[in-house]
Amino acid sequence: MEADHTIWIEKYRPLRLADIVGQDEIVQRLQSYVKEGSMPHLLFTGSAGVGKTTAAIALARGFFGDSWHMNFRELNASDERGIDVVRNQIKQFARISPLEGASFKILFLDEADALTPDAQAALRRTMENYAHTCRFILSCNYSSKIIDPIQSRCAIYRFAPLSPQAVKEELHRIAKREGLRVSPEAQEAIVYVAQGDMRRAINALQGAAILSPTIEENMIYAITSTARPDEVEALLICATGGDFEGAEALLECLLSERGIAPTELLNQCYRALVHRKMEGALKVAFIDAIGETDYRLSEGANSDIQMKALLARFVLHTRQE
After folding, report:
1. What would be the CATH architecture of the domain defined by 8-159?
2. Which one, of 13, 14, 16, 18, lies nearest residue 28 by Cα?
3. Is the separation of the CB atoms in 167 and 137 below 8 Å?
4. Of 7, 43, 180, 205, whose Cβ has the fewest other Cβ atoms within 10 Å?
5. What's the CA gap between 90 and 77, in Å, rounded?
6. 129-142 core/surface letters (b: 16 or more CB in 10 A; e: else)
7. CATH fold group of domain 164-223
8. Cα torsion at 271, 274, 275, 281 (round to 10°)?
9. Calpha distance 38→135 (Å, rounded)
10. Dihedral in degrees, nearest 10, Cα atoms 164, 169, 172, 174
11. H helices of the chain, where?
12. Where exactly are the structural domains of the chain?
C-alpha cells in the first residue's frame, strides 16, 4: 500500500460540521442554517487554529454536497489586501449565478482584517449588491479591525480557544488511527504547547511521530522549541529571588543552547506569572516589564540585551519590595 504523505492538519480536517470538536454551540447554529437552506453573511473571529476555516468549508459541504467546489471559493486577504482584489476577483465571483441548482454561492475571505479600509468599503458594497447570488464568510483574528458597516451586515461568531479536553480527544483519535502511543505526560505537554490551537497540537504530534511511534513528554518540548514549565518556573524563582547570575545562566541555556525564541519565552513567562501566587503589586510590576520588553522586541531591539534587561528589572523590583 502506498504511504499517505498528506500533512495531518489536512488529513484530519473535519469534513462535516458534526465532526468539529470544541465549538458545540457554534456548530449547532451553523447546522440550523443548513437545515433551513439559507444563511446570512457571517463573520468568524478568533485566534489561529480554533476551527474557523474548517467550519466554513464544512458549512459549504453541508449546503452543496459533492458539488461544493463549484459554489465555494476561498481567498486569503493577506495575499492581496488592496481594493483591486475586491473589484476584480471578489466581485467577479459574486456576480456569477450559482451552479448545480444552488440558491447561492459562498465566498470565504480568510484574514479579512488584513484588508485596507478602502478595500473593506468596496467589499461592503459588493456584499450589498450581490447578496442574492453570494453569501460571504469573513474570517479574522481581530474583529475590531473590520469596519462597522461590514460587522453590522454579518452574524458574528466568536470561536474560543479549544479546551484541553477537546484537544486531548482529537489527539487520541489521531493517535489511534496512526498506531501511536502517547503518554499522559506527552498529552499534557501538547496541550501546554498548543494553547487552544488545534493546528499547533496536531503539528506537534506529527513532528514527534516522525521520530518514534511512542510519544514522550521531552520529545514534544524539543521539537516545538518550547521551554518546559519547570524550566520557566526555575527562571522566575531565580529572578524573583534576586539571583541575577543564576537567572542569567538559565536564560542563556534556554535561548542559546535550546534555541527557544525570545518572544516564545516571554509568552511562557507571562503565562507562568499570571497563575503564580505572589504579592499583587509585584506581579503587576513584572507583567508590566514583560509587556515593555515584548514591545521593544517587536520594534527591532536587540533580543539578548532586552531579555537580560528584563531579568534585571525583575531583580530590582524584588529588592525594592
Report:
1. 3-Layer(aba) Sandwich (3.40)
2. 18
3. no
4. 7
5. 11
6. ebeebbbbbbbbee
7. Helicase, Ruva Protein; domain 3 (1.10.8)
8. 150
9. 9
10. -110
11. 8-11, 24-36, 52-64, 83-85, 91-95, 117-129, 148-151, 164-178, 184-194, 198-211, 217-223, 229-240, 244-252, 262-274, 280-298, 303-320
12. 8-159, 164-223, 229-320
The SS3 of residue 75 is: strand
Q: Name the grid cell of 164.
A: 484541553
Please say whether the beta carbons of 43 and 157 come within 8 A: yes
173-227 per-position pLDDT tens digit: 999 999 999 999 999 999 999 999 999 999 999 999 999 999 999 999 999 999 9
Unique residue bearing C-alpha cell 503518554? 183
Q: What DSSP letter does each residue of 125-181 carry, written as one string?
A: HHHHHTTTTEEEEEEES-GGGS-HHHHTTEEEEEEPPPPHHHHHHHHHHHHHHHT-E
| CATH among 1.10.10.10, 3.30.2010.10, 1.20.272.10, 3.30.499.10 for 229-320 | 1.20.272.10
* Residue 261 C-beta-side C-alpha neighbours within 13 Å: 9
For residues 7 and 207, what is the distance between their CA atoms, to the nearest angstrom?
10
Task: Quote the CA–CA distance of 236 and 247 in Å, as a whole number.
Answer: 8
**Mean pLDDT, the chain cut into blocks of 10 residues (321 residues total):** 71 91 93 94 94 94 91 82 74 87 92 88 90 93 92 94 94 94 96 94 94 94 93 92 92 92 94 88 92 95 94 86 61
What are the grid coordinates assigned to 111, written together?
484574514
CA-angle at 271, arms to 267 and 275, nearest 5°:
165
Pairing of strands 181-182, 105-110: unpaired
Query: Other CB atoms closer than 10 Å to residue 39's CB: what's the count?
Result: 19
Q: 135: which strand partners?
A: 106
**Spatial contact of 157 and 44, defined as CB atoms under 8 Å apart:** yes
Rg (CA), the chain: 23
